[in-house]
Amino acid sequence: MTEPKKLKVATCSLAGCFGCHMSLLDIDEKLFELVKVVEFDRSPITDIKHCGPCDIGIVEGGVCNAENVHVLKEFRKNCRVLVATGACAITGGIPAWRNNVDLWDCFQEVYHYGIGLENGQIPNDPELPLPFDKVHPIGEVVRVDHFLPGCPPPADAIWKFLTDLAAGREPKLEYEMLHYD
Amino acid sequence: MAKTFILDGKTIPFEEGETIMEAAAAAGVYIPHLCHHPEFKPHGSCKLCTVSIGGRLGAACTNKAAEGMKVESETEALNGDRRALVQMLFVEGNHVCPSCEKSGNCQLQAAAYHLGMLTPHFTHFYPARDVDASHPDVLLERNRCILCELCVRASRDVDGKHVFGIGGRGIRARLIVNAASGRLADTSLSVTDRAAEVCPTGAIVRKRHGFTIPIGKRLYDHHDIAEAPVAGMERPGRD
Amino acid sequence: MPEQDVCDLPGIVARWQHDPANLVQILREVQESCGTIPSDALDRLAQLLGVPRVRIESTASFYAFFHAESHGAYEILFSDNIVDRMAGKEALKQYFCERLWLEPRKLSEDGLVYVDDTADIGLADQAPALLVNGYAIPSLDKARLDLVAELIRARKPLADWPPMLFEIPDNVRKPGPLMGEAFAPGAALKATLARGADATLAELDAANLRGRGGAGFKTATKWASCRKAEGEAHYVVCNADEGEPGTFKDRVLLASHADLVFEGMTVCARAIGARRGFLYLRGEYRNLHEKLKSVLAARREQGLLGRNILGEDGFDFDIEIHLGAGAYICGEESALIESLEGKPGKPRNRPPFPDRRGYRDQPTVVNNVETFACAAKIAEKGGAWFAALGTPQSAGTKLVSVSGDCKRPGVYEYPFGASVRQILIDCGAEDAHAVQVSGPSGTCISFREFDRRIAFEDLATAGAFMVFSRERDMFEVARNFTHFFAHESCGFCTPCRVGTSLLKNTMDKLAAGKGSAYDMHEMKHIMHILRSMAHCGLGHTAANPVVQTMEKFPDAYERRLKRLDFEPAFDLDGALQTARLITGRDDAWAHLANE
Ligand SMILES: Cc1cc2nc3c(=O)[nH]c(=O)nc-3n(C[C@H](O)[C@H](O)[C@H](O)COP(=O)(O)O)c2cc1C
Ligand code: SF4
Ligand code: SF4
Ligand code: SF4
Ligand code: FES
């Protein structure tokens, strides 16, 4: 008997807090079951820097700067199925609180008045990702196939979601796994 | 003999003058709703309770029940459209559930769970709305207001105070308060007012009471809103 | 001098009987005499009227013509219907702003003048047009705008402006029984009194008159049911809100046939037993106000209004004029009644309809201006005469307001059943490619359907008939209409409050060349939600222009779609602009290709 082909999964965190990734790792012993059916491509878990053709892309966090867009587009291009994972990827989440603060005020706060700063200068280094006026959910930048809400989504929900997808089923969450917080 | 109508194939008794929503609630049948509250005059603005009444669509909370009428509510099509309405309410305001005191006890959120909403779907407006923390006991967080006017009705009809109203129109409609300064502190609102506790979302919340109920113990953590329709209330019944 | 001293609040409130139900009228007079409705005026009105401030603020902030900030000595509002745009409105507005060194939506530095857009002002036959301090100036061109600019610079009071600027011809191109025949004031009333109320209703029934405001409800049925309804008082309301872009036939009826309209209202009063009537006149028709008041005064002199009308004992009836304040939704009958009661114009929950619970919750007939004019004619000449005109299902004639790409815009009176093609020939629209019948909330028809007929059984219409030639971009037509609906949504119900703005934003996205097939699909979805869930006719029809033009003029959309799959919801590179300015960066990483 040949082993079934493993699903290739890539993950990334954009404007998020890695909480969703922590939750992914939180599926504990099931992680071992998961790696039987799943192989990780680009992901903070693997340290692979660019994503190749994948079956599933898991994106945590919203889009807050130019770099986020590059990563997101790379995921969209390479992943057959893209999953917006967690409140930030789906709605902008907590980072979107800044959406009604003037960007200039944000910069001032960070670089001029920030604690421990003296004569702070607003950096113009091209290495630094340039921020957008507002933080956006990833669905406002690329087409998204599935949404897995939660802040973070419970480990069980992630497990259920991935195993459903791996089995080619339409993912379905039970009442208690569906949370926005 | 009591008069009856048919709701999703089920026979529902009603008394003359009752709305479809009232009769359904008394029979223990949930019809999704947000601006309806059994204690207040029907409003009919959220449109979540839209049902098919003999083939015509109408709000269950404002349409009166009539003998023999055939009402459909739990159809895939209607629930799909209701989900779209809830999604509209989410993108219209700024709903950051993870940092909201009302999360877990919020009717907007619970209705969205009930309808299986996974994403707000529509493009977010991210409107600039004011937060009013001036009142010593009550926080007014307009980012979470869905303009259901329950607070308006409660203050006017129960508290007799007219603390709240709706200003502006269209997408710019907003909750306003009865003070030249525009500050809640300068109104006669008291934390014991009905208006201070009736809000279905986290737009009007009592200060220093946020996050007191642990996750897992909140109203809608384990119970679909269909089983616990109104926060802090027993299911309304008729004796 | 502080503004509120100029503004005699107690006097205004007294003139309106200290009645909070007259709040819209009170606010309108405050706005007109002070130029603004300042925050402290709200407090004083609350005191004077004995109602909570929040109620006053609700109403004051609802209507587009009320504002708390100063719009200077001269407020200029350009009518922004697509027909105005086709007639060069945008360029003329820019020209005007440059002449006066101003920016739209910004009070000039000397505090003198303010320029903005407003929804169609009922002059599509004389587009482009504007309002200056509420008074209409039609047929704009550079020369007329030069004159306006000069008058403003010279700070000439509006009363001293040359009257020719404000002259508004009727442009009646094809008169019929309503507009073409002389009417002797009192003729219909005399016939009514001779006949009695029951027989008058019977004539109306035989005439098969259906409402001219759009919905086409049978008038005799409405009157009979209102007459039957119990109440402390009965009311007659004439709906002269005429807010549907492209419609202006009520303007002409009121300008030149007001007696006919008032007489129809009085016939109605007799039939239903009303003592009070209202003409709800859209604020944009401010220029008709004085004249209409004098017609009413003359009718009182003639014994056609007031006590014991025409000597009939106990037949007392009078009419007041209420002005609107920039809210299309107030044309919807229950919103209109809310407005008459001093509230924001939000449609009520129906049933009950106004015939049972209308003004002050009492039985009320609400009819369109033209419906009352027809009713007067029927009272005068009999139901059979009327029923013989038009088609079996659509009796009588219809006033059609023709505008857009044609040689002879104006009002045409046709017996029902006239074909679109006939109207196009008559108005000189050889090049017509599409017609928007009955305004944005009506039906867009393409050249393939020009044999369709104006009738309730085919193309029902409240009267607008906007013609578009081959060169016109039907996408821009629909986009203009989505802006209109988003601006006019009252905001009461979720689907329309949010849905009309989503539609508008999506159309703007397409216009910016950033649309995809996904957006087209989204708009259809929003349309479905509006049609099935909205609270009133505005929401139900708000997506019609988009959906109909999509169907009938697919090319207008397809050539705008950037790609088939998906396009970001916002301009990626544009959203970096602020950060680029702040950081001074312009390197490759500071840009995103909108590929
Ligand atoms: C959004 C909306 C706007 C309307 N505007 C007008 C209007 O300007 N004039 C009018 O006569 N009817 C208007 N109507 C129709 C009225 O609600 C009502 O049907 C009409 O005044 C009844 O008079 P009729 O039977 O004589 O037509 C509007 C309806 C809606 C839903
Ligand atoms: S009000 Fe309800 S939906 Fe809105 S953020 Fe709070 S919990 Fe979420
Ligand atoms: S504050 Fe709450 S109760 Fe009041 S209108 Fe908003 S959502 Fe409704
Ligand atoms: S459909 Fe639009 S205009 Fe009508 S009630 Fe709803 S929000 Fe108001
Ligand atoms: S509950 Fe019926 S419309 Fe809101």
Please describe what this structure looks like:
- The complex is a heterotrimer of chains A (181), B (239) and C (595).
- Helix content of chain A is 30%, strand content 20%.
- Chain A is of the alpha/beta class.
- In chain A, the strands form two sheets. Chain A has a five-stranded parallel β-sheet, sandwiched between helices.
- The model of chain A has no long low-confidence stretch (mean pLDDT 90).
- With 595 residues, chain C is an alpha/beta fold.
- Chain C has a six-stranded mixed β-sheet. In chain C, strands 2-1-3-4 form a four-stranded mixed β-sheet, covered by helices on one side.
- In chain C, helix 13 packs across helix 14 (258-272) and helix 20 runs antiparallel to helix 24.
- In chain C, 42% of the residues lie in helices and 13% in strands.
- Chains in contact: A-B, A-C, B-C.
- Chains B and C meet through helix 2 and strand 8 of B and helix 4, helix 5, helix 20, helix 21 and helix 22 of C.
- Bound molecules: flavin mononucleotide, iron/sulfur cluster (SF4) (3 copies) and FE2/S2 (inorganic) cluster (FES).
- Residues 95-97, 100, 102-103, 106, 108-109, 144, 201-202 of chain B line the site of one iron/sulfur cluster.
The count of β-strands of chain A is 7
Report mean pLDDT of chain B, rounded to a whole number.
Answer: 94
Residue share in helix of chain B: 10-25%
What is the spatial order of strands in the main beta sheet of chain A?
Answer: 2-1-3-5-7
* Individual helix count of chain B: 4
The domain count of chain B comes to 2
- Biggest contact: B-C, 39 and 42 residues
Distance between the termini of chain B: 16 Å
- The number of E-state strands of chain B comes to 10
In short:
The complex is a heterotrimer of chains A (181), B (239) and C (595). By secondary structure, chain B is an alpha+beta fold.
List keywords for this structure.
heterotrimer; B: alpha+beta; Ubiquitin-like (UB roll); Alpha-Beta Plaits; 2 domains; five-stranded mixed beta sheet; 4 helices; 10 strands; disordered C terminus; C: alpha/beta; Glutaredoxin; Rossmann fold; four-stranded mixed beta sheet; 42% helix; globular; disordered N terminus; binds flavin mononucleotide; binds iron/sulfur cluster
